[in-house]
Design goal:
The structure is a single chain. With 234 residues, this protein is of the alpha/beta class. The protein has two domains: 182 residues, CoaB-like (Rossmann fold), CATH 3.40.50.10300; 45 residues, no CATH class. The strands form three sheets. An eight-stranded mixed beta sheet has the order 5-4-1-6-9-10-11-12, sandwiched between helices. A two-stranded antiparallel ribbon has the order 2-3. Helix 5 links the parallel strand 9 and strand 10. Helix 1 packs across helix 6.
Length: 234
Protein backbone atom coordinates (compact mmCIF):
# COMPACT_ATOMS: atom_id res chain seq x y z
CA UNK A 1 0.00 0.00 0.00
CA UNK A 2 1.26 3.46 -0.91
CA UNK A 3 0.42 6.22 1.58
CA UNK A 4 0.70 10.01 1.43
CA UNK A 5 0.89 11.80 4.78
CA UNK A 6 1.00 15.58 5.24
CA UNK A 7 2.39 16.79 8.54
CA UNK A 8 3.46 19.85 10.53
CA UNK A 9 2.48 23.35 9.41
CA UNK A 10 2.90 25.58 6.39
CA UNK A 11 4.88 28.82 6.45
CA UNK A 12 3.60 31.63 4.24
CA UNK A 13 6.37 34.09 3.27
CA UNK A 14 6.09 37.81 4.01
CA UNK A 15 9.49 38.55 2.47
CA UNK A 16 12.67 36.51 2.02
CA UNK A 17 13.40 36.33 5.77
CA UNK A 18 9.96 36.39 7.44
CA UNK A 19 6.85 34.26 7.32
CA UNK A 20 3.52 33.44 8.98
CA UNK A 21 3.29 29.96 10.43
CA UNK A 22 1.56 28.05 13.25
CA UNK A 23 2.47 25.90 16.23
CA UNK A 24 1.94 22.47 14.62
CA UNK A 25 4.83 20.12 15.47
CA UNK A 26 4.08 17.24 13.12
CA UNK A 27 4.27 14.75 16.01
CA UNK A 28 1.12 12.90 14.97
CA UNK A 29 2.13 12.81 11.30
CA UNK A 30 5.54 11.44 12.22
CA UNK A 31 4.02 8.73 14.41
CA UNK A 32 1.45 7.78 11.77
CA UNK A 33 4.19 7.46 9.17
CA UNK A 34 6.17 5.19 11.52
CA UNK A 35 3.12 2.94 12.04
CA UNK A 36 2.65 2.49 8.30
CA UNK A 37 6.37 1.90 7.74
CA UNK A 38 6.54 -0.76 10.45
CA UNK A 39 3.58 -2.49 8.82
CA UNK A 40 5.56 -2.70 5.57
CA UNK A 41 3.86 0.05 3.58
CA UNK A 42 5.44 2.76 1.43
CA UNK A 43 5.10 6.32 2.78
CA UNK A 44 5.50 9.71 1.12
CA UNK A 45 5.69 12.34 3.87
CA UNK A 46 5.09 16.00 2.97
CA UNK A 47 6.17 17.89 6.07
CA UNK A 48 6.55 21.49 7.12
CA UNK A 49 9.97 23.04 7.49
CA UNK A 50 10.08 22.67 11.31
CA UNK A 51 8.08 19.44 11.59
CA UNK A 52 9.25 16.32 13.39
CA UNK A 53 10.17 13.56 10.95
CA UNK A 54 10.98 9.84 11.12
CA UNK A 55 14.56 8.70 10.66
CA UNK A 56 15.45 8.17 6.96
CA UNK A 57 14.69 4.60 5.95
CA UNK A 58 13.68 2.38 3.09
CA UNK A 59 10.13 2.92 1.81
CA UNK A 60 10.07 6.50 3.18
CA UNK A 61 10.17 9.52 0.85
CA UNK A 62 10.51 12.88 2.63
CA UNK A 63 9.38 16.03 0.83
CA UNK A 64 9.89 19.37 2.64
CA UNK A 65 7.02 21.86 2.33
CA UNK A 66 6.99 25.60 2.96
CA UNK A 67 3.85 27.44 1.85
CA UNK A 68 0.39 26.44 0.72
CA UNK A 69 1.35 26.74 -2.94
CA UNK A 70 4.18 24.22 -2.63
CA UNK A 71 1.86 21.85 -0.75
CA UNK A 72 -0.80 22.17 -3.45
CA UNK A 73 1.67 21.43 -6.24
CA UNK A 74 3.21 18.46 -4.40
CA UNK A 75 -0.17 16.92 -3.56
CA UNK A 76 -1.49 17.44 -7.07
CA UNK A 77 1.47 15.44 -8.33
CA UNK A 78 1.46 12.67 -5.71
CA UNK A 79 -2.23 12.04 -4.87
CA UNK A 80 -2.99 10.21 -8.17
CA UNK A 81 -0.20 7.73 -7.35
CA UNK A 82 -1.28 6.64 -3.84
CA UNK A 83 -3.90 4.47 -2.16
CA UNK A 84 -4.34 6.48 1.05
CA UNK A 85 -4.03 10.17 1.98
CA UNK A 86 -3.69 11.22 5.63
CA UNK A 87 -3.97 15.01 5.50
CA UNK A 88 -2.92 16.00 9.02
CA UNK A 89 -0.97 19.13 8.09
CA UNK A 90 -2.01 22.43 9.66
CA UNK A 91 -2.44 24.49 6.50
CA UNK A 92 -2.50 28.27 6.78
CA UNK A 93 -5.97 29.71 6.17
CA UNK A 94 -4.47 33.00 4.93
CA UNK A 95 -1.24 34.14 3.28
CA UNK A 96 0.32 37.61 3.00
CA UNK A 97 -0.26 39.66 -0.13
CA UNK A 98 1.87 42.58 1.00
CA UNK A 99 2.92 44.56 4.07
CA UNK A 100 3.32 48.32 4.17
CA UNK A 101 3.36 51.27 6.58
CA UNK A 102 0.63 53.89 7.03
CA UNK A 103 2.39 56.36 4.75
CA UNK A 104 2.08 54.12 1.71
CA UNK A 105 -1.47 52.82 2.24
CA UNK A 106 -4.14 53.72 -0.36
CA UNK A 107 -6.23 56.74 0.64
CA UNK A 108 -9.41 54.68 0.55
CA UNK A 109 -9.40 51.28 2.26
CA UNK A 110 -11.78 49.18 0.20
CA UNK A 111 -11.49 45.62 -1.07
CA UNK A 112 -10.96 46.93 -4.59
CA UNK A 113 -8.23 49.39 -3.61
CA UNK A 114 -6.41 46.85 -1.44
CA UNK A 115 -6.46 44.05 -4.01
CA UNK A 116 -5.26 46.31 -6.83
CA UNK A 117 -2.64 48.10 -4.74
CA UNK A 118 0.15 45.54 -4.56
CA UNK A 119 3.60 47.12 -4.13
CA UNK A 120 6.56 45.25 -5.56
CA UNK A 121 7.57 42.65 -2.99
CA UNK A 122 10.76 43.54 -1.17
CA UNK A 123 13.45 40.98 -0.39
CA UNK A 124 13.50 42.28 3.20
CA UNK A 125 10.91 44.73 4.49
CA UNK A 126 12.39 47.68 6.40
CA UNK A 127 11.87 47.75 10.17
CA UNK A 128 12.07 51.55 10.45
CA UNK A 129 8.31 52.17 10.71
CA UNK A 130 6.67 51.85 14.14
CA UNK A 131 3.62 50.16 12.61
CA UNK A 132 3.02 47.97 9.58
CA UNK A 133 -0.23 46.83 8.01
CA UNK A 134 -0.44 43.46 6.30
CA UNK A 135 -2.99 42.37 3.72
CA UNK A 136 -3.84 38.66 3.76
CA UNK A 137 -5.72 36.60 1.21
CA UNK A 138 -7.51 33.30 1.79
CA UNK A 139 -5.65 30.17 0.72
CA UNK A 140 -7.33 27.38 -1.27
CA UNK A 141 -8.80 24.43 0.67
CA UNK A 142 -6.46 21.78 -0.69
CA UNK A 143 -8.33 18.88 0.91
CA UNK A 144 -11.34 19.72 -1.29
CA UNK A 145 -9.27 18.86 -4.39
CA UNK A 146 -7.98 15.46 -3.23
CA UNK A 147 -10.95 13.40 -4.47
CA UNK A 148 -10.90 15.33 -7.75
CA UNK A 149 -7.30 14.31 -8.29
CA UNK A 150 -7.97 10.68 -7.29
CA UNK A 151 -11.62 9.65 -6.73
CA UNK A 152 -10.60 6.20 -5.49
CA UNK A 153 -8.12 7.32 -2.82
CA UNK A 154 -8.96 6.67 0.84
CA UNK A 155 -8.93 10.12 2.44
CA UNK A 156 -8.44 10.95 6.13
CA UNK A 157 -8.97 14.60 6.99
CA UNK A 158 -8.65 16.45 10.30
CA UNK A 159 -10.73 19.11 12.03
CA UNK A 160 -9.33 21.07 14.96
CA UNK A 161 -11.48 23.34 17.14
CA UNK A 162 -10.90 24.81 20.58
CA UNK A 163 -13.12 24.88 23.66
CA UNK A 164 -16.27 23.37 22.14
CA UNK A 165 -18.58 20.62 23.34
CA UNK A 166 -18.12 17.10 21.93
CA UNK A 167 -21.53 17.47 20.27
CA UNK A 168 -20.46 20.65 18.50
CA UNK A 169 -17.14 19.10 17.48
CA UNK A 170 -18.84 16.06 15.94
CA UNK A 171 -21.40 18.21 14.13
CA UNK A 172 -18.65 20.27 12.49
CA UNK A 173 -16.72 17.09 11.65
CA UNK A 174 -19.74 15.64 9.82
CA UNK A 175 -20.12 18.90 7.91
CA UNK A 176 -16.48 18.67 6.85
CA UNK A 177 -17.05 15.09 5.65
CA UNK A 178 -19.69 16.41 3.28
CA UNK A 179 -17.63 19.40 2.13
CA UNK A 180 -14.42 17.49 1.43
CA UNK A 181 -15.81 14.10 0.33
CA UNK A 182 -13.35 12.56 2.81
CA UNK A 183 -13.87 8.97 3.92
CA UNK A 184 -12.94 9.83 7.51
CA UNK A 185 -12.50 12.96 9.60
CA UNK A 186 -10.48 12.92 12.81
CA UNK A 187 -12.04 15.60 15.02
CA UNK A 188 -10.13 17.04 17.97
CA UNK A 189 -10.24 19.94 20.40
CA UNK A 190 -7.04 21.89 21.12
CA UNK A 191 -7.90 21.93 24.84
CA UNK A 192 -7.70 18.12 24.87
CA UNK A 193 -4.22 17.88 23.31
CA UNK A 194 -1.31 17.82 25.76
CA UNK A 195 1.83 15.90 24.83
CA UNK A 196 0.92 12.32 24.01
CA UNK A 197 -2.56 12.78 25.49
CA UNK A 198 -4.74 13.55 22.49
CA UNK A 199 -8.50 13.05 22.69
CA UNK A 200 -9.96 12.64 19.22
CA UNK A 201 -12.94 11.13 17.41
CA UNK A 202 -13.04 9.29 14.09
CA UNK A 203 -16.21 9.87 12.09
CA UNK A 204 -17.24 8.60 8.65
CA UNK A 205 -20.09 9.15 6.19
CA UNK A 206 -20.69 5.45 5.58
CA UNK A 207 -20.98 4.65 9.30
CA UNK A 208 -22.51 7.91 10.53
CA UNK A 209 -23.90 6.44 13.75
CA UNK A 210 -20.57 5.00 14.92
CA UNK A 211 -17.93 7.27 16.39
CA UNK A 212 -14.55 5.87 17.41
CA UNK A 213 -13.03 7.64 20.41
CA UNK A 214 -9.23 7.73 20.75
CA UNK A 215 -7.31 9.06 23.74
CA UNK A 216 -3.73 9.51 22.51
CA UNK A 217 -1.60 9.87 19.39
CA UNK A 218 -0.68 6.18 19.33
CA UNK A 219 -4.35 5.20 19.24
CA UNK A 220 -5.02 7.69 16.46
CA UNK A 221 -2.13 6.41 14.33
CA UNK A 222 -3.08 2.77 14.97
CA UNK A 223 -6.72 3.44 14.06
CA UNK A 224 -5.75 5.16 10.80
CA UNK A 225 -3.51 2.20 9.91
CA UNK A 226 -6.20 -0.35 10.80
CA UNK A 227 -8.91 1.37 8.76
CA UNK A 228 -6.55 1.74 5.81
CA UNK A 229 -5.61 -1.95 5.83
CA UNK A 230 -9.26 -2.97 6.16
CA UNK A 231 -10.35 -0.87 3.18
CA UNK A 232 -7.24 -0.99 0.98
CA UNK A 233 -5.26 -4.10 0.14
CA UNK A 234 -1.72 -4.49 -1.16
Amino acid sequence: MKVLITSGGTTEPIDDVRGISNFATGALGKLTAEYFLRAGHEVILLSGDKALRPEPQERLTLVPIMGTQSLYEAMQDVVPQVDVVVHSMAVSDYRPVYMTDFEHLPDELTEASLTTFRPKREKKISSKADFQIMLLEKTPKIINAVKQWNPDVLLFGFKLLSGVTPERLLKIAHEKLSQTKADFIIANDLENIQGQAHQAYLVSEKDADRVISMKNKSEIAATILKKSEELRHD
